[in-house]
Amino acid sequence: MATAETFNLGFIGAGKMAESIARGVSKSGLLPPSYISTAHRSQHRRDAFSSFGVKVFHHNIEVVEASDVIILSVKPQVVKEVLLELSPLLSEDKLLVSVAAGIKLKDLQEWAGHGRLIRVMPNTPSAVGEAASVMTLGEKASKEDEKRIGSLFGAIGKIWIANEKCFDAVTGLSGSGPAYIYIAIEAMADGGVAAGLPRDLAFNLASQTVLGAAAMAMKSGKHPAQLKDEVASPAGTTIAGVRELENGGFRAALINAVVAAANRSSTLS
Ligand code: NAD
């Protein structure tokens, strides 16, 4: 039975995002998987959740009935239809959390029929406890709700609060950002192979280098430009590589990628 610290958590939309949050939450020990539920028609998706102990129902209605906190994790295009269908069951007794990109609190409130809502933009590294998430509170969400969702997403990574106006930019940066870095890892590993390394070693070195650089950026207290300057000695190897990145428009490509994804997010609502 749910206590003040534990609660029943339900996912409407048993896709990749829901799975990575559910896996992260159960791995962290914040909630046992038996407190988590979802529903899906496809056996493949059902198996993905039941394999780590999550209850899998046949219908969304059963998920809502079983949950104190409901995470809406369907694609943005179907959020309205799903909420309108479930709205008779969505009372203020149940905190509704949406992770759908581009769908605003005011629309969620209208379709759900109440304002006890929190909008969160997480990312898929939640599956390994390293999500970067941002939340914004609906008008009826309480301090307790903020705390509960802060610890839920805090159990699967880091979470910040921001004004809803920032959400398209957040989506473009941290929501979509893992894909940019996967490409960087793949390309760095290809570079290693091109320079003579075995594929496995190249891939592991590229991945650990990204992890290490991110840890330095988060923990050293230094500006990334300073960290870069510190590893670029005169006429050295690193500055030769940096020069090629600048020639290839690396900075501009990343800036444009974030802005393009943010713009796309603003067209989804
Ligand atoms: P996904 O396609 O993997 O998952 C969506 C799931 O919802 C699918 O399994 C689909 O079958 C199911 N579904 C469709 N209609 C349904 C209905 N009526 N009732 C119940 N389930 C239904 O997509 P995803 O990548 O997991 O994205 C889900 C949400 O998370 C999106 O709104 C997206 O904007 C948001 N999000 C995703 C990421 C990401 O990196 N994938 C990051 C941040 C936010």
Kindly provide the radius of gyration, computed on alpha-carbon positions and rounded to a whole number of angstroms. Answer: 21 Å
Q: Could you tell me how far the N terminus lies from the C terminus, measured between alpha carbons in angstroms?
A: 37 Å
Bound small molecules, deduplicated: nicotinamide-adenine-dinucleotide
CATH level 1 name of the largest domain: Alpha Beta
Number of domains: 2
- Average per-residue pLDDT, rounded, comes to 95
Going by helix content, strand content and strand pairing, the class is alpha/beta
Question: Could you give the order of the helices and strands?
Answer: EHEHEHEHEHEEHEHHHHHH
Strand tally, please? 8
Instruction: Determine the fraction of residues in helical runs and give it as a percent range.
Output: 40-55%
Which residue ranges are poorly predicted, with pLDDT under 50 across at least 5 consecutive positions? none
Largest sheet: 8 strands, mixed
> For the record, what is the CATH homologous superfamily label of the largest domain?
NAD(P)-binding Rossmann-like Domain
- The outline comes out as elongated
Q: Give me the CATH architecture of the largest domain, please.
A: 3-Layer(aba) Sandwich
What's the helix count?
12
Can you tell me the CATH topology of the largest domain?
Answer: Rossmann fold
Proportion of strand residues: 5-15%
Neighbour order of strands in the largest sheet? 3-2-1-4-5-6-7-8
Subcellular location: Cytoplasm
Binding site for NADP(+): 12-17
Binding site for NADPH: 60
Catalytic activity: L-proline + NADP(+) = (S)-1-pyrroline-5-carboxylate + NADPH + 2 H(+); L-proline + NAD(+) = (S)-1-pyrroline-5-carboxylate + NADH + 2 H(+)
